[in-house]
Amino acid sequence: MRAMRIEHKHKQKSRTEYDGSVRTNAVAYCLRLGFFAGLIWGVGRWLLYMIHFTKVIPGFLADPFFRQAFLKTAWGHTIGIAAFIVFSIIATFLYKLVLGRFSGPWPGVLYGLFWWLVLFVMTGPSLGLFQPFNQIGYDTISTECCLYVIWGLFIGYTIAFEYTDEVSREPMGAH
């Protein structure tokens, strides 16, 4: 009987067994996720601007701090991608705080749509970041809306799926 207990103690757990002892650092996870969301979708926004799918310059979030003439240059585009990365990090933390307990893709889709509405319908035109909503053009409206929905889906679904499931996939004893 004692030999069975000793053997049971030394038995290796499989990768699917998770005892809850290792937790993912939420702050580091959100920083990483926000950085990559901003980088991937910021470069995506830049590409869509370069092939004229949208008229909104990549650096529109940095417009209050820089002149638009500068934001239309290569360095301005780089500043715009960096501003989108910072915005994405902040948005990721907000998502984690407010909607982090929801699972599935729909909260992320709605979150992206929310940010598109805030930026492109409510505040952007009133702050002079770009033309009013009814003058900006259907190509820009649909492109930006789709990009923000996919961006929100990326953030939301990654937090909902990866954060809750990541630790259970780690091998036991891995640090």
Structural write-up:
With 175 residues, this protein is an all-alpha fold. It has one domain. 67% of the residues lie in helices and 0% in strands. The protein has six helices and no strands. It has helices spanning 2-10, 26-50, 68-71, 74-99, 106-127, 138-169. Helix 2 crosses helix 4 (74-99).
Entry keywords:
175 residues, mainly alpha, 0% strand
Q: pLDDT under 50 segments (min length 5)?
A: none
Largest sheet: none
| Helix percent band | 55-70%
Mean of residue pLDDT values? 84
Summarize this entry quickly:
The protein has six helices and no strands. It has 175 residues and is mostly helical.
Which SSEs are present, and which pair or pack?
Blueprint lengths: L1 H9 L15 H25 L17 H4 L2 H26 L6 H22 L10 H32 L6
